[in-house]
Amino acid sequence: MxxxxxxxxxxxxxxxxxxxxxxxxxxxxxxxxxxxxxxxxVLGDGTIEGxxxxxxxxxxxxxxxxxxxQSGEAMLLRILPDAADGDGSDGVSExxxxxxxxxxxxxxxxxxxxxxxxxxxxxxxVGDTPIAGAVRRLGAELGLDVVRVEDGALEPASDDLAxxxxxxxxxxxxxxxxxxxxxLPYVGLVASPKRGAGVLAELRADGxxxxxxxxxxxxxxxxxxxxxxxxxxxxILARIVAVRRGRAFTGQADGRRADGRAGGQTPTxxxxxxxxxxxxxxxxxxxxxxxxxxxxxxxxxxxxxDETVYFCCEGCxxxxxxxxxxxxxxx
Length: 331
Known about the structure:
By secondary structure, the protein is α/β, with parallel strands linked by helices. The protein is 29% helix and 24% strand. It is built from eight helices and 18 strands. Residues 84-89 and 252-279 have low confidence and may be disordered.
């Protein structure tokens, strides 16, 4: 059971929309310094709050917790003193579990369940129209944090997913420009093709470049033949889900451009292209003991032959420095 203080800390992190991983020891074979039920929180910068083992075990927990945070998928981490079928450099992965070698352990084994806790992606909705209301209702069912934004009060955050403007002409220019300049992955305007073309023309006259204008989805949503507010909201959220799941919107290329120019695809083809997934947290291998560690500023390291070498602990770093003639304490 998570200690009360750590539980309060987890609540604070969640309330602040900070990503973290709950690391729970589910099995500890003696001799180890932890017991089953020990819990820690791993923050996005690699900080560990709580206790799930000694220095070397913590390095493995930190490294793979950061990977779980990137993927959003839970993982069972098996930390063994002599992992089979592996050299300890990358670990052995199987069906949601990762087995790694930890030569620092004194003979026991630890199994840690890593569960990422990620903030729901925020979707900002401007407008008090039936379509805006439908986007808010349906978006919540999709695991999105749909936020109603009052006119003129748009303040996008760096990790916001989308902006949907369904205000029917009220403060649209300022809102759209703010969303584009903030670099939101998706910006959609609910408007007819004729009115949408007029909005784009006004933004163009106001100095917004073509590259940014191309990013506005107008009329917002996939061309599903939607008519009711709920159907239109569904078509918009389909776009947003595609962006969330690793496909990037490329602008009005689906044959229904608001400015009247021909698109490059048929009207039913979504203007989406695959984009690479966010790269996992960088890992490195301790050249002394073979442990996999997170390549973070806080991880013991030394610069050798113009490359940064990372270690599980100060002891391994000292051995490396002695072997290669580095001054002790050199970074």
